[in-house]
Fold this protein.
Amino acid sequence: MKALLRNLAVLLSAALFIYLVLCMGVWTGQRRLLFQPDANTLREPPASATTLSLQTPDGERLQAWWLPPPNEQAAVLLYLHGNGANLDARSARLAALHEDGFGVLALSWRGYGGSSGEPSEAGWRTDARSAYAELQRRGIAPSRIVLFGESLGSAQAVMLAAEQPVAGLLLDSGFDSALAIARGLYPWLPVGLLMRDPHRADLAAARVQAPVLQLHCPQDPVTPVAHARALHKAFRSPARLELLPGDCHVPRYVEFRALARAFVQGLVKGSSPGA
């Protein structure tokens, strides 16, 4: 009996050791899972775009593409992209937004194409604030600024809208939090203790005062629609959740172009209809 108990204790100790090693591996490697940047130099921006270099308060240099609005009353979109690739992968979408009659400031996050530094939630928050400050420097009134958040960038859009005045919030494949998604994927890990970048959009949503349009695929394989619904419930401002057909994450802009264009034009009356 003593030998059995001794063997059992050894097995339990080994299992605990393996579990702790696994937890340590998740702690040290989680940002490589969450952030998947393409740090290659950006190619030529869309036609009519200017490449900007923004300085952050913590000393990073961020590249951004600026597509100026057609007039002084038009909406200006602050585009906050998702965790993969870089702005080159969004070039056609940004060009289409500009064609729709909007100005666009598209930010390349730290660690992504053309920008210095390493990505983190705290760093991204500083980056988003720096981009918003650039719009202020250019004289763009908050009543003309619409935040466009894509996937992981949607959490940053919600958090920025919770602390800065904006005309509206457009979210493509947004969700309540990266923490909630991770808990669903890894229920056997103490995710709440391990996660360094939880992106708690749900905690910020109640402080957003601007109208919100959420766009989501019902069979999203990356950010399940249940997380979009949870975020929707957290808003106190007028919020609308539109489900797009198909099994997709970050759908093509053409699939929701009419919805997005009408939403932004309804917020900022000076925006002219696009082609």
Q: What stands out?
A: Strands lie at 36-37, 50-55, 61-67, 76-80, 84-85, 103-107, 145-150, 168-172, 212-216, 239-243. The chain has a mean pLDDT of 92.
